[in-house]
């Protein structure tokens, strides 16, 4: 069961907050998967200290967050530090992200994950959802589970807060269901709160990207570990981190660190890279093996800030304490997934066994 606090706000506080929030401007945005339709919820804004896009929409600077929402951020930060709600809370971490959404009675949000929230992996990304107004059920399930009897259903009342632990960004999915609650004019306003950090896509401390140039070779730092742009002749000790290539003068074997999906955005690539680290012990072992080593990318121009090798360099060469935290979280995730897969194997029966 996820943590749920039914009376996080007093009735008076919740009523006052609902009246303030309903005065905000809300819009129904276009469906990113079908431009001819619109999504089944309303959006006000997401306020974030992080400047990069989140969910495909540019954020509003956190400094512009309405004062009443900032006060809730402070209250949640103090609450999380005091209660350590999820067991992964970093006491004192500020709540610096707030996304304000609204749902009418027939609105909903399909099952989804917050895999983008694995970006600030070291500082954790627990999600706190404050609910005001009408009640919309929320369903939570293990990723891919279709057995509705195993869903966890909560009914967030007016003034409540429920918590989606950091690990659920990888292991679970959640959805907001339609409602028949007509109180508060059938309107539910939800605010998602969390702590976010801007990923640092760069070389190790003291390094820095070379300015873009027409040179064919270069490196992100004069000292190791660094990203090297050039051929194996130029950097014989660097580890290749690309896809298999048998054309041209140099032949390259497949690397586990290749940009298989051809993602050019370093923030999105970091999301994907962390999902691979969480996916099993093998990838974690590969990441340990490149720790402290130069990485070779023969395809990008020297100084390219979008080079995927810079992401692997940053992940592999975090300070020892932070690297160990990431490894601990990764181990927890793929251990949980392995146990789930084992249980599915134990309960599996061949098709012919289901017939008498």
What portion of the residues fall into strands of 2 or more residues? 15-25%
CATH topology of the largest domain: Jelly Rolls
What's the CATH C level of the largest domain?
Mainly Beta
SS-based class? alpha+beta
CATH architecture of the largest domain: Sandwich
Tally of contiguous helical segments: 7
Radius of gyration based on Cα positions: 23 Å
Order of helices and strands: EHEEEEHEEEEEEHEEEEEHHEHH
- Give the % helix: 25-40%
Overall domain count? 2
Mean pLDDT: 79
Let me know the largest β-sheet. Answer: 7 strands, mixed
Our measurement of the CA-to-CA distance between the termini, rounded to an integer number of angstroms, reads 38 Å
| Oligomer designation | single chain
Descriptive account of the structure:
- The protein is α+β, with helices and mostly antiparallel strands and 356 residues long.
- The protein folds into 2 domains: 191 residues, Alpha-ketoglutarate-dependent dioxygenase AlkB-like (Jelly Rolls, Sandwich), CATH 2.60.120.590; 120 residues, no CATH class.
- 25% of the residues lie in helices and 20% in strands.
- The chain is built from 7 helices and 17 strands.
- A 7-stranded mixed β-sheet has the order 1-11-8-13-6-4-5, with helices on one face. Strands 7-12-9-10 form a 4-stranded antiparallel β-sheet.
- The longest helix has 27 residues.
- It is elongated and about 70 Å long.
- The C terminus is likely disordered.
């Amino acid at each position: 069961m996820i943590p749920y606090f039914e009376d996080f706000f007093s009735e008076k506080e919740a009523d006052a907050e609902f009246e303030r929030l309903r005065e905000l401007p809300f819009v129904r945005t276009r469906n990113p998967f079908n431009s001819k339709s619109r999504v089944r919820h309303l959006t006000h804004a997401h306020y974030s200290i992080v400047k990069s896009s989140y969910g495909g929409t540019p954020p509003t600077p956190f400094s512009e967050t309405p004062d009443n929402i900032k006060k809730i951020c402070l209250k949640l930060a103090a609450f999380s530090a005091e209660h350590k709600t999820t067991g992964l809370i970093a006491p004192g971490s500020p709540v610096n992200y707030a996304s304000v959404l609204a749902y009418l009675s027939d609105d909903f949000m399909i099952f989804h994950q917050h895999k983008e929230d694995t970006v600030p992996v070291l500082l954790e990304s627990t999600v706190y959802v404050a609910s005001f107004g009408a009640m919309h059920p929320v369903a939570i399930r293990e990723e891919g589970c279709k057995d509705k009897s195993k869903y966890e259903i909560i009914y967030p009342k007016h003034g409540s807060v429920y918590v989606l632990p950091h690990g659920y960004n990888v292991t679970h999915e959640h959805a907001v269901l339609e409602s028949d609650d007509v109180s508060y004019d059938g309107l539910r306003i939800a605010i998602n709160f969390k702590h976010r950090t801007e990923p640092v896509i760069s070389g190790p401390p003291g390094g820095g990207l070379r300015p873009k140039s027409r040179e064919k070779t270069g490196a992100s730092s004069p000292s190791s570990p660094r990203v090297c742009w050039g051929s194996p002749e130029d950097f014989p000790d660097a580890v290749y981190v690309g896809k298999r290539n048998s054309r041209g003068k140099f032949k390259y074997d497949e690397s586990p660190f290749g940009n298989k999906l051809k993602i050019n955005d370093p923030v999105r690539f970091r999301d994907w890279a962390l999902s691979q680290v969480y996916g099993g012990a093998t990838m974690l072992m590969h990441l340990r093996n490149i720790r402290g080593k130069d990485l070779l990318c023969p395809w990008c121009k020297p100084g390219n800030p979008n080079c995927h090798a810079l992401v692997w360099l940053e992940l592999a060469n975090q300070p020892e304490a932070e690297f160990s935290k990431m490894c601990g979280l990764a181990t927890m995730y793929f251990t949980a997934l392995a146990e789930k897969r084992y249980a599915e194997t134990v309960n599996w029966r061949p098709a012919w066994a289901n017939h008498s």
